[in-house]
Amino acid sequence: MRENLRTALDLAASGIPPLPLRAGKVPFGNCRRCANNACGGRPNMKTPGPCTCPAPCHAWAAATTDPDVITSGPWRHAWLRAEAVAYHPGGAGLTVVDLDNADAIAWARENLPTTQVVPTTRGEHWLYLGRTQSANAVRPGVDIKSTMAYARWLGFGTGTMTDLPEVVRALAASKPAPARSAPRLVTVPAGGAECPHRTPAFLERGIAMAQQRITDARSTIHHTVYRTFLAVLSTHGRCGCLTEDHIARLFTAAQAKGETARHCTDAWSNARTRLGL
């Protein structure tokens, strides 16, 4: 719908990265290659799969403030078919406390500082300045949406937005992501031959260039991290060159750009899967 496209452009101009929703408040796969989850993203499309598109095209990772991206090609087509508009709170430096019922609202009024409030179908969104990790069901009827999450856009609401309180950060931290096993390294192939990549200068230059590529990224951070991991593994993943120290350096560079440890592990695992490692 053209109205949704106009809303998206208005949000982008305000520094709020939007994304389109289809029926059921589900994000689009915003390119033909990712339609119907063909690229392998998770079914709810909240986490990008190993997509080879020029930019991330799923859910929160697709949210952008670039009007040229919003109005170009398949993106524009998705916006014109959208049933609703969502946004990435963390991308705008915000956190949404999603209160799903009257009891949750009553709890918030007793325990959280007054802030900007947006009415929803069943409850309210309380918006705070500042980002934190996202977490669902931190209390009955209470979700926290900030980084790596999206919330439906329902207007600016009423009230004055205040700083994110520590109680909300604590609630999000109380619901850590399920533990993931560390990336498994690929051993040197049998045969005893010296790996051709075990030249210190070659390997060091490759890792340093990968770190710099992540550090220099100014947008589409998620996509850059994944593609960088993919490039490193395609060169060194089958011969046992990589050590825990090399992987830690790449993860550290990604986390310095705002990525979480969980996302780094997911991106690494997705890259390994794509390469059949």
What's the average pLDDT? 80
Unreliable residue stretches: 42-50, 177-194
The helix tally amounts to: 10
Shape from CA axes? globular
Termini, distance in Å? 43 Å
Which structural category do the helix and sheet elements fall into? alpha+beta
Strand content: 5-15%
The ordered H/E elements are: HEEHHHEEHEEEEEEHHHHH
Radius of gyration: 21 Å
Q: How many β-strands, per DSSP?
A: 10
Largest sheet descriptor: 6 strands, mixed
Could you estimate the helical fraction of the residues in percent? 25-40%
Could you give a quick summary of the protein structure above?
With about 280 residues, this protein is of the alpha+beta class. The chain has helices at about 1-15, 60, 65-70, 75-80, 100-110, 165-175, 200-215, 220-235, 245-255, 260-275; strands spanning about 20, 25, 85, 95-100, 115-120, 125-130, 135-140, 140-145, 150, 160-165. α7 (about 200-215) runs parallel beside α9.
Can you walk me through this structure?
The strands form two sheets. Strands 4, 5, 6, 7, 8 and 10 form a six-stranded mixed β-sheet that branches. This protein has a four-stranded antiparallel β-sheet with strand order 2-1-3-9. With 277 residues, the protein is an alpha+beta fold. The longest helix has 17 residues, at 200-216. It contains ten helices and ten strands. The N and C termini lie far apart (43 Å). 39% of the residues lie in helices and 14% in strands. It has helices spanning 2-13, 59-62, 67-70, 73-81, 102-111, 166-173, 200-216, 221-236, 244-256, 261-275; strands spanning 18-22, 26-27, 84-87, 94-99, 116-119, 124-129, 135-139, 142-145, 151-152, 162-163.
